[in-house]
Write a structure and sequence with these properties.
The chain has 4 helices and 2 strands, in the order H-H-H-E-E-H. It is mainly alpha-helical. Helix 2 (about 30-50) crosses helix 4 and helix 3 crosses helix 4 (about 100-125). The radius of gyration is 15 Å and the shape is globular.
Length: about 130
Amino acid sequence: MRMFFNYLFVAIIGGFGYCLIEIIWRGRTHYSMFFAGAIILCVFYFISINYSLPLWKKCIIGMLIITVIELAIGVVFNIMLGENVWDYSNMPLNFLGQICVPFSLLWLLLSGVAFKIIDVIKRVLI
């Protein structure tokens, strides 16, 4: 039961954190970003408590995780539901307008920050 509450805590931080990043970056957010952030930070937490990896490897894995989750959320909310949360069609090296290389590189950097936040959360929870 304790692990459930740990993951719930991490999910809430991830959800609100992701929305905050969106608001700071583009001045608005969408409820789907809460779910994306919650999922992402929970996966990061899982990796952090189960694997001992150097930060640079965590960042690469984190970039891939965020990119895949952004693609999944984008396909559901932007393409299937027509919510138009974001559109990367004008960005170079984009896929379906949902993900692109420039933002993936940004996720690489933000993954480092997120894993450092996870380290603090682990000290509080464990």
